[in-house]
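[step 3/7] inverse_fold.run input=structure_tokens len=467
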């Protein structure tokens, strides 16, 4: 290396491909970790399924339901399940909670199609379910793919029936049809966003009429008969159901080199899984480690399972009560002393659509975990902009642990924008920065991530709590 090369190497912040210079052992670890992540993706395709998967893993690893613990001591591990859709977990630190929390927060809801309250109808010999999409989707991506139905039906007497159809190889699947190209001249002239309308997203669920009598809606009747035989429900029970349509295909390794993961719901289950694994590695932290798995992020974090609700505050108040350290207004002080990684995915630069990214400030797959100092849109509007002092502190943790990271923006200025749960926690007084795994095809039925970045996210979260 010449003197000039050395000088350049010292002065430049050259972004490197993470796959260069890693040992065979590390590569093996990365592949193994991703296989376990793929299993989680396939087991937890909805917020309820992810939540029950996470609760089970926490239980197996010594975490106890907060309601079963009256007194909390340093090292104790607890969790709280919020209405089967969100989870908050904590490991009590050696320092008092008042010294602040180290929080990592992701979300476990993903864009999908929900059934409407009155979903079932018959049209021209077919039975369909009406849907209402959840979160930001490109509607055309949800036609002509196999879909499975997940969720719950709760009867008026409180009996709850869990539904999961289309995941088992022996299950039927469902689909939303689209027009054949031969007759799609008019449709193809439309703008892409108008090609498929929200009311066109009708799920095909059957075609056999019931009996041979001269009554109307016999296909619908047959579907209800099947559902009644199997689940004991009638049409009215759909009124108190939460049924979600998600891609039926499995998450898989992607590429000849198996370097990537393709799968539904990686926004944001890639961050929920990596933070869960990091939490399991955290033993006797100095400050109390808190892990959030939120619901409703994709539709603005509203409702009592979203981060805008006060249920999380109540969870932290309970930690104060049970460590016998609570007093008036202490919660506000706790938040002002706390630090948080908002663990949510980042937009990866896609060479096929590079024009929406600004190359100096884009996140690249394979270069490590992606940080967004701020998100927002049009002049950072709506952004929680992380303070330089906190960014420096996080950089220090990453650099001292040799973790590959990149700090980026979501696309070119004025091209679009986005947000996460970061601002909600920042508004409480917490120092927050967004960081997660860069994704291609975000919010599509089949999102793509790099296994290297997944592993670096896990290492980042573990190092943050270890610190
Ligand atoms: Mn997200
Ligand atoms: Mn999202």
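[step 3/7] decode complete -> sequence:
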């Amino acid at each position: 290396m010449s003197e000039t090369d050395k000088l350049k190497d010292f002065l430049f912040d050259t972004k490197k491909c993470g796959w260069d210079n890693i040992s065979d052992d590390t590569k093996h670890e990365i592949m193994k970790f991703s296989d376990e992540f793929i299993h989680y993706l396939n087991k937890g395709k909805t917020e309820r399924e992810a939540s029950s998967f996470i609760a089970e893993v926490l239980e197996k690893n010594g975490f106890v339901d907060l309601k079963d613990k009256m007194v909390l001591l340093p090292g104790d591990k607890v969790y709280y399940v919020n209405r089967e859709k969100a989870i908050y977990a904590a490991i009590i630190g050696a320092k008092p909670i008042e010294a602040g929390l180290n929080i990592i927060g992701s979300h476990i809801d993903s864009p999908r199609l929900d059934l409407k309250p009155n979903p079932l109808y018959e049209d021209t010999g077919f039975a369909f379910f009406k849907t209402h999409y959840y979160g930001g989707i490109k509607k055309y991506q949800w036609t002509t793919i196999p879909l499975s139905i997940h969720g719950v039906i709760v009867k008026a007497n409180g009996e709850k029936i869990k539904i999961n159809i289309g995941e088992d190889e022996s299950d039927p699947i469902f689909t939303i049809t689209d027009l054949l190209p031969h007759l799609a001249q008019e449709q193809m002239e439309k703008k892409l966003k108008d090609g498929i309308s929200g009311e066109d997203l009708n799920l095909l669920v059957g075609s056999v009429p019931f009996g041979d009598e001269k009554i109307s809606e016999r296909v619908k009747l047959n579907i209800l008969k099947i559902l009644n035989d199997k689940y004991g429900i009638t049409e009215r029970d759909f009124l108190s159901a939460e049924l979600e349509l998600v891609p039926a295909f499995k998450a898989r390794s992607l590429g000849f080199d198996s370097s990537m993961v393709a799968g539904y719901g990686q926004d944001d289950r890639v961050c929920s899984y990596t933070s869960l694994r990091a939490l399991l590695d955290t033993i006797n932290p100095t400050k109390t480690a808190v892990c959030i798995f939120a619901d409703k992020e994709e539709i603005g974090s509203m409702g009592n399972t979203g981060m805008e609700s006060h249920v999380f505050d109540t969870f932290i108040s309970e930690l104060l009560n049970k460590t016998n350290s609570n007093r008036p207004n202490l919660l506000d002080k706790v938040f002002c002393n706390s630090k948080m990684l908002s663990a949510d995915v980042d937009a990866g630069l896609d060479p096929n659509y590079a024009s929406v990214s600004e190359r100096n400030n884009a996140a690249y797959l394979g270069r490590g975990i992606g940080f967004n100092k701020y998100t927002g849109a049009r002049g950072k509007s709506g952004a929680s902009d992380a303070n330089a002092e906190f960014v420096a502190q996080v950089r220090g943790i990453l650099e001292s642990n040799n973790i590959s990271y990149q700090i980026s923006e979501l696309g070119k200025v004025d091209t679009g924008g986005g947000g996460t749960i970061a601002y909600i926690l920042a508004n409480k007084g917490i120092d927050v920065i967004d960081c997660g795994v860069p994704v291609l095809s975000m919010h599509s039925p089949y999102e793509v991530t790099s296994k290297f970045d997944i592993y670096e996210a896990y290492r980042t979260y573990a190092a943050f709590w270890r610190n």
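[step 4/7] annotate
The domain at 24-107+264-466 is CATH 3.40.630.10 (Aminopeptidase).
The pocket of manganese (II) ion (ligand 2) is lined by residues 267, 298, 443 (CB under 6 Å).
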